[in-house]
Amino acid sequence: MLEVSADGMAVLDRHARFTLVNPTAEHILGISSRELLGASAPFDVGVPGHLCHTPWTAPDGRQRDLEYRLAPVPGNGYAVWFRDVTETLRQRARLTAIVRAASSVADAGSLRATLDAVAREIVMTANIAAVQILAIDDPNDAVRVLGMAGFGDARDFTERLSACRRRGARVRFLDAFQRGEPVVVPHRKPMIMADPVWEPLWEIMDRPDWDGFVAMPMVIRGRTLGAINAYYVPREDPGADSLAFLKAMADHAAVAIDTAALLAQARSRERRRLARDLHDSVVQQLFSMRMQAKALRAQLDGAGADPAVVRNGAEELAELSQSALNDLRGLVFELRPLDLGERGLVEAVQAHASGLEARTGLAVDVLTGGGGEPDLGVELQEDLYRIVQEALHNVVKHARAAKAVVRFDRTAGGGLDIEVTDDGRGPGAETADPEASALGLVSMRERAERWGGLLTAGPRAAGGWTVRVRLPGTRAGREGDR
């Protein structure tokens, strides 16, 4: 049994010294039985019967994690069973890191903060000393550092890398970018530190204690956005599990970069829309006010001005100015609803609906299914407001509707449903700007998913279109104190 066991088995004397080992124990510990016999074991004999863990440094310097269990044997000795769980623990840490990175991608306020967090998660694994996350638009241009960990202060990395490229250095992560496949280079650090073309980067690259190198491309929808560079600690060659972990992290980073680009497009589109609305409403009204003021001045300058005509002109001018003021307030509120914390989400949506109705003629009803104003944090309220705002904008732009309804409902367990419906025809082949409409849906969906919610959109059986946001109770209730 000792000879064929897949686990390490040994017998210790009462001083915790090896007296017998099987071949698997020799393999796990990396030491022959001749050297082990009589040597002190790394196991704590004070905890017999318990499943325990202990670190072990193999003769080649590799750090291992051993799981073991002891049992007393007659004659004041101990039998011990043990196995190497290093890769199991690393895989568990990698899965935890992936989950944390996914949460970071959903919640971080900026792309750099998100990818710095992803880089830190990668470095937290046992066999990686440093990481860079690089965006590459064109292999001939300078790269952009979007995330970094393990290097200390390396703010001038891109400048130094450009200097190395001008000297003729072969940059292996560009191979990964161009091929769309990972590049693995054992003993990369000695090559770099011995090659004069890399001299501008020697100071930065010598700081971490590393040896091997992997460049993992970041790919999304068939498009390569850049690469994650992982610098492995000495005597730790990247195996299949480690490469799979890097691939998962590269996928998360690619999603973060792609999402940031889509949101930037959505914001740019929103700015253009606001500029058009400003021109079509306030600018036109101010032009009319200017013409009306000139007409009044001409009346007053003329002989025998009719007071009734002047009074009517002044009243029209006042109405125009009030309308322009209302539209301007509505547009300013759309830029940022600053009073969400005081007014609340429902009241803010009601104010937006009133302004939209005055400007476009679309009748908008805002209904609550009971429970009053939902108790939500300001950031969550703003994202929900933006979703409703975008949904109503799509109704005006694409639906040819006469009426829209925004309904807020609490669900069982404290969740929240928000539904925007209209009586129009919904977006279809006649949509004026299908790309803009798709980006609007992407923006709304990203805002909902940021808080663990679900957004759906589609035609109604009775005609028209529905956009629905559903937040789970644990999320909707918890964000009140966020």
What's the number of extended β-strand segments?
15
Structural class: alpha+beta
The neighbouring-strand order within the major sheet is 2-1-5-4-3
How many structural domains?
Answer: 3
Strand content: 15-25%
Topology, please?
Layout: E1 8-12, E2 18-21, H1 23-29, H2 33-36, E3 52-57, E4 63-73, E5 77-84, H3 86-107, H4 111-123, E6 128-135, E7 144-149, H5 157-166, H6 172-179, E8 183-185, H7 188-194, H8 202-205, E9 213-220, E10 223-232, H9 240-301, H10 307-335, H11 340-343, H12 345-360, E11 363-368, H13 378-399, E12 403-410, E13 416-422, H14 434-450, E14 454-459, E15 465-471, H15 473-478
Parallel strand pairs: 11-12
Antiparallel strand pairs: 1-2, 1-5, 3-4, 4-5, 6-7, 6-10, 8-9, 9-10, 12-13, 13-15, 14-15
Brief sketch in words of this structure:
Helices cover 48% and strands 21% of the residues. The chain contains 15 helices and 15 strands.
Give a description of the structure:
The chain has 482 residues and is of the alpha+beta class. The protein folds into three domains: 8-84, PAS domain (Beta-Lactamase, 2-Layer Sandwich), CATH 3.30.450; 89-263, 2-Layer Sandwich (Beta-Lactamase), CATH 3.30.450.40; 337-482, Heat Shock Protein 90 (2-Layer Sandwich). Helices cover 48% and strands 21% of the residues. It is built from 15 helices and 15 strands. It has helices at 23-29, 33-36, 86-107, 111-123, 157-166, 172-179, 188-194, 202-205, 240-301, 307-335, 340-343, 345-360, 378-399, 434-450, 473-478, and strands spanning 8-12, 18-21, 52-57, 63-73, 77-84, 128-135, 144-149, 183-185, 213-220, 223-232, 363-368, 403-410, 416-422, 454-459, 465-471. It has a five-stranded antiparallel beta sheet. It has a five-stranded antiparallel beta sheet with strand order 7-6-10-9-8. It has a five-stranded mixed beta sheet with strand order 11-12-13-15-14. Strand 14 (454-459) and strand 15 form a beta hairpin. Helix 3 (86-107) packs parallel to helix 9 (240-301) and helix 10 (307-335) packs across helix 12. The longest helix is centred in the middle third of the chain and has 62 residues, at 240-301. The chain is elongated. The model is unreliable at 428-433 and 474-482 (pLDDT under 50).
